[in-house]
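Loading example: each entry is read as two labelled lines plus one structure line.
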Amino acid sequence: MNSASLITTPLSLALVGVPNCGKTALFNRLTGSRQKVANYAGATVERKEGFFVLPSGRHARVLDLPGAYSLNATSPDEAVTRDVCLGQHPAEQQPDLLLCVADATNLRLHLRFVLELKRLGRPMVLALNMADAAARRGIRIDAQALEAILGIPVIETIAIKKKGAANLIAALDGHLPPAPPKLAEDADLHAETRRILAATVSMPSPTSPVDAAIDRWVLHPVLGLAILAAVMLVVFQSVYAWAGPFSDGIEAGVGLLGELAGEHLPEGLLRSLLVDGVIAGVGGVLVFLPQILILFFFILVLEESGYLPRAAFLLDRFMVGAGLSGRAFIPMLSSFACAIPGIMATRSIPDPRDRFLTILVAPMMTCSARLPVYALLIGAFIPDRAIGGVFNLQGLTLFALYMAGIFGALGVAWVARLLGRRGAEEQALMMEIPAWRLPNPLDVLLGLKERGMIFLRRAGTLILALSVLLWFLATFPTPPADWTRPAIEYSFAGHIGRALAIFFEPIGFSWQICVALIPGLAAREVAVAGLASVYAVAGSGEEETAQLLGAAIANEWSLATAFALLAWYVFAPQCLATLSVVRRETASWRATAVWAALLTGLAYGAAFLTFHITAALT
Amino acid sequence: MSYASLEPVILALVLVFSLWLALRKAAPKLSLLIGAATRKAGLPEAVASRLFGSPAACNSGCGSCGGCEKPAESTPVNFHPRS
């Protein structure tokens, strides 16, 4: 092919690699926003295609294939990757070049798949991604030697950096590399991987005796669980012990802002909108930023130190005992941040029934959006008292709520397995335990910044918008001339709340709670903003309402109502984004309806029992 | 123009802006559907994309709508090998 025809013929690339190799980040880096996203026909597997122009002017089309560990597919995702690589996919032409992405920090896992792809005898380029992270960890890779052994171009990339793919783009801009020499069909890929690693990679240090000594305690079947429980207890205690002064500071700032707005704006609807809608709604949620940051600080530290995979190892026995696949741990762990990535991570579970069961229980893990609701109710109803001189009652309550979610999930999985088939083949959890390491403060800070920005962005967009809308609903229509009841009861929100209260009254929810549950459908924490707005509008003219939401609900609700709402929030699938992801991942409205009905029923039942038992005891 | 006469105008603007923001953030798929309808009705592509989002550019990886793959790939567990 001459230079002119090279430029006019688009280059067709397929990005292929093991999950978490940074393939999608590289895809985004190469194509920017020039992407098309669709589904492969008849499957829930996402098809992502992107385009970019090489420096020579030649156009390139990139297909981001689903992550796969092997061409021996065990899931629909891996089957698509296999078929495209083999040129057997009915709707996809065989790519000109396989752009194989490998995580440079974990070559041992990724290289085996590279060798398997090499067997196909197709032109290939290997992108050694996360080259910067590997260098930071002291992993030295001789890229030239690797290139010589594999017989394919090897290029280091850093997909998350702006110029991180420049060398790769330059390498793609020209003639295709020749197809590498084929590996023998009967070659032992593991042995070949070990041989190549020995020749090209030098690791910083082998397993240290210190690591082994720590693991003897931490991975002990009994002591390890006790350590895990203690670690979790410390985390939840700290959320309350440390957040207080910061939350108080934000609360005071929000209150001051409300007072200033109240003083400087003339009486009227605009002032009410700003004070009762925007400041009360957004401020009511912002107060919980310190708790969220402290919780994520611990999660990041535990992750960076290498403790989380060990926790997975310890809990695997319980998961399998409850009827969950060993592979369900990652989706469930991810769901502590947000159920959406957790549900998407169930793609790695090949058995459809196991996968649906994990999708069903993953949202019971307490996502960060529930934290403001928990924190509000705990702060209002649980005294800030020391227990046994060490523990704080509020921290213990938060710990209990997280545990209720975990054990609720395990219980539901156990019942589902009892009702379903027995003796099904168990999918073992296969994972590598990383070395213990001191968390890098910069990485932890960056992670915290990311979490903080996500929360603030939501506060400044979704929560702000819904607070304003809720204010309108709580303010209009204005009461008639001869009104006798509180003005908010004549509003749309009042009517909606009262209509919903018929359904929620048996579990102790007032009409104000019912109103707050509606914006909570968009995101769980918005329920706090909803409550703040409803109570602020109800007490219009008293600017301090914004910062006194806790006091207001403590006066108006019974303990049974507060506990019932907590029980509702442990199980209920209120978030619409989660619902849409369940629909997408199951590709079935029926399964989605079953999912929503089961969780709602569970939440209603739990709230009902909690309400009546608490009412009887108090 | 007096404050009293401006107040309903400001309130209406804030309401419309909030409805739009809530639509984009809480119901991105509905927003894209409305965008497609407005394109059919003759609204210029650039304006429709700005107001209701562009299906082609939607795979931003922001994670706010769950409509893209990025969150699934950033699991909180590290699987790097011991040696």
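Chain A touches chain B through 67 residues (CB under 8 Å).
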